[in-house]
Write a structure and sequence with these properties.
Layout lengths: L2 H7 L11 E3 H5 L3 H5 L7 E6 L4 E4 L2 E4 L1 E4 L5 E13 L17 E3 L3 E2 L6 E2 L2 E3 L9 H14 L1 H4 L7 E11 L4 E4 L6 E2 L4 E11 L5 E11 L3 H7 L1 H6 L4 H10 L5 H4 L16 E6 L8 E9 L2 E9 L16 E7 L5 E17 L9 E8 L5 E4 L6
Parallel strand pairs: 2-6
Antiparallel strand pairs: 1-6, 3-4, 3-13, 5-11, 6-11, 7-10, 8-9, 11-12, 14-15, 16-19, 17-18, 18-21, 19-20, 20-21, 20-22
Length: about 375
């Protein structure tokens, strides 16, 4: 049995209409034994359900990754499963207007890239040799399509996505990747993420500002916040100050327990360590894939982009209602610990779409930040 067939059998596919995924122990633990019987997990020796996107194995911190399942996907050895989800509906460009029923079809909504005018295309097939009935037949067929569009709609495909940490991922004959999962597993690493700004001066004299992060042991978190509260509020702390603090307050066995230098963020686009809230437009936070803050002369610029799904389509007119933005920063276990917010005083917008394989409709936003309104919050309890 395939994993997708299992979820359809248990009616779990229907749950994706109200939730983006089946996530964690509460939703996946009841299906654990059945998942092990699926072809994709036929070579899994240990299956563990986890609630958070990272685990720590002795000195190493491992981050969950996402995979799109196909007929040959196999997850081998030790497996730490975080979630199952469905991708947005995708369309094959070569089948976009094949007849669906009675020689007719109606496409999904298309948007003109210049005017954003929505349109649909209708396909009607008929026999050109039968001239006597062409008009009546086509009129009747067109009425049927317009009266029952769901029966003639071009169907897309939604792929099953699996997210977790797996010892081996590949096909029955060949491994695609290998992750060392030997050693004692700790599902909740004991550290917090700290953000700082780093300046880069280019040859032409321009200044680029990069936001970076590092980690401190959870035992030092409160002391760190007390010592650098002013700098954290203004996001003016430097990497050198953080390193000096860690050196002066080194805990016993800290280096053994927390090998920060070996940690690398490995998560794909939809699982980043930040959320973006935009006031004035109803855009789901999890759709944002990236952002960049940089300067153009004396101005600070924010650029970002987000995807659209079958459940969400961005209304371009909402763009003109955007007045302020908040970026929330999460630690590796998904807890919100600080944020930066600001008003915007200038903006640009662009929507792009393509019928190339697996391409997702994207919206690109560019804002001029009102520097006087920038605020940084650092929350001891996680959240704002």
């Amino acid at each position: 049995m395939k994993l997708k067939e299992l979820l359809e059998t248990f009616g779990k596919i229907e749950e994706f209409t109200s939730s983006p995924s089946l996530y964690g122990k509460k939703q996946l633990e009841p299906l654990k034994e059945q998942i092990l019987q699926c072809e994709e997990f036929s070579e899994c020796t240990e299956l563990h359900i986890i609630d958070k996107p990272i685990i720590q194995i002795e000195e190493r911190v491992l981050s969950s990754q996402s995979y799109k399942l196909n007929d040959t996907s196999r997850f081998k050895g030790k497996c730490y499963l975080l979630s199952l989800s469905l991708s947005p509906e995708m369309y094959n460009p070569h089948l976009i207007l094949n007849a669906i029923k009675d020689g007719a079809a109606i496409s999904q909504t298309m948007y003109d890239p210049n005017t954003f005018m929505p349109t649909k295309t209708i396909l009607l097939e008929y026999n050109p040799c039968d001239d006597s009935s062409d008009r009546n037949y086509l009129n009747k067929l067109l009425d049927n399509v317009l009266n029952n569009p769901a029966d003639y709609r071009v169907k897309g495909e939604r792929y099953l996505m699996i997210r977790g940490i797996f010892e081996e991922v590949g096909t029955p004959d060949e491994s695609k990747s290998f992750t060392d999962l030997s050693g004692e597993v700790i599902e909740e690493p004991k550290y917090h993420m700290v953000f700082y700004m780093e300046n880069e001066y280019l040859e032409n004299g321009e200044l680029k500002i990069h936001m970076k992060n590092t980690f401190i042991p959870v035992e030092l978190s409160n002391k760190f916040k007390e010592q650098f509260s002013d700098k954290l509020d203004k996001l003016s702390i430097t990497k050198e100050e953080i390193d000096r603090f860690l050196e002066e307050n080194k805990l016993d066995k800290t280096e053994k327990q927390f090998n920060f230098k070996e940690y690398k963020l490995q998560e794909p686009a939809k699982t980043n360590r930040f959320l973006i809230k935009i006031k004035g437009a109803d855009i789901p936070e999890y759709l944002f894939k990236n952002y960049k803050i940089y300067n153009e002369g004396e101005e600070l610029i924010l650029t970002t982009e987000f995807y659209e799904t079958v459940q969400y389509t961005f209304n371009p007119s909402d763009f003109f209602n955007i007045i302020d933005i908040e970026i929330l920063y999460l630690d590796p276990v998904g807890t919100i610990h600080n944020s930066i917010s600001f008003d915007v005083k200038g903006s640009n917008f662009k929507k792009t779409g393509s019928y190339s394989e697996d391409e997702i409709t994207k919206n690109k936003l560019r804002f001029v930040i009102d520097k006087k309104t920038i605020k940084l919050k650092y929350d001891n309890n996680g959240g704002n």
